Amino acid sequence: MTMEYPVDDVNKVLISGKVGTVPQLQRLSNYTHLCYFSLSTIERWTSPDGQPMERNNWFKIEVLGKNAEYAAETVKKGDYYLIDGYLRYEKYEEKRSIVKIRAYSLRLLNKGAQPQEKQFNDNNETFNGLDRPTESHRKDDRQP
Fold first, then answer.
1. Is residue 51 part of a domain?
2. For residue 140, is it within any domain?
3. How confident is the model over 44-52, as a mean pLDDT?
4. Residue 143 within any structural domain of the chain
5. Which pLDDT belongs to residue 130?
6. Cα angle, residue 56 at apex, residues 53 and 62 outer, rounded to 5°
7. Is residue 122 domain-resident?
8. CATH number of the CATH domain containing 23
9. DSSP code of 131?
């Protein structure tokens, strides 16, 4: 017996922050490319005694396919980006795992910079912000 759910699952991330590492471009075994870099966000709050507090959070960002080459050329350490994507769970040892963000849209947010946005899916096709990739954009993801 299968259960029916009233809504579809949603796996979506919208995050902005500062690029913390030089993007690395890697060639995968299936002749596609993967670009990865870290993104830092700062969480700020006030403690109960009125002291300003902050915590730095780090996220691993991935861009796949032909778009990985674009990201490797244009994303620079220290730049601020708005990233639209989805979460990927990856197990890399028996008891260890990591959650990564697979990006399908990058927007440069640096002050004074020309607005730049690149939206793409894992099929190396650009799309407008209305046509979000469907289940086919996850075809290369490995199941945990």
1. yes
2. no
3. 95
4. no
5. 27
6. 155
7. yes
8. 2.40.50.140
9. S
Q: What is the tally of structural domains in the chain?
A: 1
Res 1: pLDDT? 60
| Domain containing residue 113 | 13-132
CB-count exposure of residue 82 (10 Å: 0-12, 13-18, 19+): middle
Closest CA to 75 of 34, 107, 122: 107
DSSP 3-state of 73:
helix
Contacts of 51 (CB under 8 A, 6+ apart): none
Q: How many CB atoms lie within 10 A of CB 32?
A: 15
pTM of the predicted model, to two decimals? 0.72
In the prediction, which pLDDT does 58 show?
94
Residue type for position 9: D
Q: Could you tell me the two tokens for 120?
A: 């793409």
| Cα–Cα nearest to 15, from 51, 40, 34 | 40
- Please report where in the chains the tokens 């490797």 appear, as a residue: 72
pLDDT tens-place string over residues 89-139: 888 887 888 889 999 889 889 876 665 555 555 544 443 332 333 443 444
